[in-house]
Design goal:
Distance between the termini: 81 Å
Number of helices: 1
Strand content: over 45%
CATH architecture: Sandwich
Radius of gyration: 26 Å
Structural class: mainly beta
Number of domains: 1
């Protein structure tokens, strides 16, 4: 009888837990994230001092789930002389779409690096932006 009194509450608790575990949870629909990229120069590089400096841009987009980073996009733009980059009004624009994002659990980490090369000496400036899939983003990269 004592065994029945001990086992019965445990059995009832297990049955209740199983009934909650088998109920379907609402599933989130994946969405696509749009990102507008604009690359431009905000400085005057017309001086002869900048003639030998070339800048290139490397963009990597990661999907972040918990502590896991998954690369979903990577692009390196060809290097150009600083004075060849357009000003802000004439920026080089492109659009990027990342499909199948779960807005509540996944984020995007957009990492971009601008590398300046002057006669073999290089300087790389890294920057990043973290976003979710809720809205359209504009990423402006200033050279």
């Amino acid at each position: 009888m004592k065994k029945l009194i001990i086992i019965l509450p445990v059995l009832i608790a297990v049955i209740i837990c199983l009934s909650f575990a088998t109920k379907p949870h609402p599933t989130e629909q994946p969405v696509s994230k749009s990102i507008n990229l604009s690359i431009y120069s905000n400085n005057n590089y017309s001086s002869a001092a900048y003639d030998s400096t070339i800048a290139s841009v490397h963009i990597t987009v990661y999907k972040v789930v918990g502590n896991k980073y998954i690369s979903v996009y990577e692009k390196t733009l060809n290097g150009m002389q600083l004075k060849q980059y357009p000003d802000m009004q004439n920026a080089t624009n492109s659009s990027l779409t990342i499909p199948n994002l779960l807005n509540s659990r996944e984020k995007l980490l957009i990492n971009y690096a601008v590398t300046y090369n002057t006669q073999g000496s290089e300087l790389t400036l890294n920057n990043y932006m973290v976003t979710n899939a809720a809205k359209k983003e504009d990423l402006k990269i200033n050279i």
